Amino acid sequence: MSKFIMVIFGASGDLTRRKLMPALYSLYTGGRLPEGFSILGIGRTGYTDETYREYMHDALASLSATTAPNPEYVRDASSSSSASVRTGAEAFCNHLHYLSIDPAQTEGYTLLAHRLQELSGEQEPDNLLFYLATPPSLYGVIPLHLKTAGLNRHGVRIIVEKPFGYDLKSAQELNRIYASVFEEHQIYRIDHFLGKETAQNILAFRFANGIFEPLWNRNYIEYVEVTAVENIGIEQRGGFYDGTGALRDMVQNHLIQLVALTAMEPPAVFTADAFRNEVVKVYESLKPLTAEDLDSHVVRGQYLSSGARKSYREEKNIPGDSRTETYIAMKIGINNWRWSGVPFYIRTGKQMPTKVTEIVVHFRETPHQMFRCQGAHCPRANQLILRLQPNEGIVLKFGMKVPGSGFDVKQVMMDFSYDQLGGDYPTGDAYARLIEDCIQGDPTLFTRSDAVEASWRFFDPLLRYWEENPDAPLYGYPAGTWGPLESEAMIREHNAEWTQPCKNLTNTDRYCEL
């Protein structure tokens, strides 16, 4: 096989510096990159090979040596950890190269083709992986330029960041462009949530344990929550975020993927196509949003100033009259045999009290409640909490008798956290996992074209409604709170409530007093 070369468009950007290079470095330290690999950065910034290596070395120098060192750079067994990291970063950066071109202009791709020939030593290298870490406006441009330069050969793969389109029409157009340049098996639409070990463990938890499968349906489950919130604002992403919003940034990809993992049927065999077929079936079963649902089943909000925290409209590059949502909560239905009548409540937001991503399965109450409330103790329905971050783990809540006279029943927790296993519990880098899968040609955890369109097909009426009705409700909420009060009213219509994790989550105290 020819020499492996990874080409990163947007190589001088924040995503490459903060996520991609550390992920590639972790693969390198683990000896999981192909021998003799090269990484070629593409961008408009005028770096040379040497200045780019210095730039990236600074980003890697503070990393800890968390994996077994690669023999290529370990000098001796007595090397200190920090010395190994410094040596490792230097050796890794020797594999980095840079080409300063404008990826929006076709002229630079002739230079790119020549540079790839130099790095590979081949006239037509095809063991190439292109990564588009660029603004979404270039997603439809770069593939066409690659085709013009003859760089869309059979062995080439391409990774595209989210969002893949801004609505159904743009997603369909992007799919058309990519289909004209590459085969579907060459296209890897990335969602880093699926690279998290704990997201993948949802499947193992469901399908490797026979005790839960009989309960995983409308007969035993009352409703499901999917939450992914952050305790920060938009940071320096104002220009991007204001044109995107919470629905495009989080809901249409991350949260709906978690819904699919929770709701999907077990594939007959665990192959990429079988797994992704079941994901598409969930998307196609989503109950379409009616005109009435757009108001009653959806709450969007925007954070306001609170204490030292600025409002969204005070953030850099945000217009003073912006109506972009930083919070969204939705009630979703799935029209199939397993889930008919079971609502899925999803929410995401910026400037929340804490950072947490979790799925909470609320089981139905027992058909006859023998034990009544005694003082502060009331029997409660069982809950299963699958936490993706932080303190990855699983919590099962169930009732137990309080010691002493009488039959007071209190809800207690059976709590498993991955860090209790010791060693390298599964909080590994999601980007590293997904890049490695792509190098190996495994598309299981990447989104297929039909899934992209099925997801957008569900959310498109909501986007059109907001566009056609600029005065549609947008509720303010103070930064540091759990979002608009209207979202509480929405979920209470089902006699349900949001699960509120504690602000300060630790390994031993992960939930507030019950």
In short:
The protein is α/β, with parallel strands linked by helices and 514 residues long. The protein has helices at 14-29, 49-60, 81-93, 108-120, 142-148, 168-181, 197-207, 238-241, 245-263, 272-285, 293-296, 430-439, 449-468, 485-492, and strands at residues 5-9, 38-43, 96-100, 128-132, 157-160, 187-189, 221-229, 298-304, 327-332, 344-349, 356-363, 383-389, 393-401, 409-417, 475-478. It starts with a strand and ends in a 22-residue tail after the last helix.
Blueprint of the fold:
Elements (H helix, E strand, L loop, with lengths): L4 E5 L4 H16 L8 E6 L5 H12 L20 H13 L2 E5 L7 H13 L7 E5 L9 H7 L8 E4 L7 H14 L5 E3 L7 H11 L13 E9 L8 H4 L3 H19 L8 H14 L7 H4 L1 E7 L22 E6 L11 E6 L6 E8 L19 E7 L3 E9 L7 E9 L12 H10 L9 H20 L6 E4 L6 H8 L22
Parallel strand pairs: 1-2, 1-4, 2-3, 4-5, 5-6, 7-10, 8-15
Antiparallel strand pairs: 7-11, 8-9, 9-10, 11-12, 12-13, 13-14
Helix pairs in contact: 1-12, 2-3, 6-13, 9-10, 10-13
List its traits.
514 residues, nine-stranded mixed beta sheet, 32% helix, Dihydrodipicolinate Reductase, domain 2, 15 strands, 2 domains, single chain, alpha/beta
**Global morphology:** globular
Alpha-beta content class: alpha/beta
Tally of domains: 2
Order of helices and strands: EHEHHEHEHEHEHEHHHHEEEEEEEHHEH
> Any idea of the CATH class of the largest domain?
Alpha Beta
Report on this model:
The chain is an alpha/beta fold and 514 residues long. It has helices spanning 14-29, 49-60, 81-93, 108-120, 142-148, 168-181, 197-207, 238-241, 245-263, 272-285, 293-296, 430-439, 449-468, 485-492, and strands at 5-9, 38-43, 96-100, 128-132, 157-160, 187-189, 221-229, 298-304, 327-332, 344-349, 356-363, 383-389, 393-401, 409-417, 475-478. It has a nine-stranded mixed beta sheet with strand order 14-13-12-11-7-10-9-8-15, sandwiched between helices. It is globular.
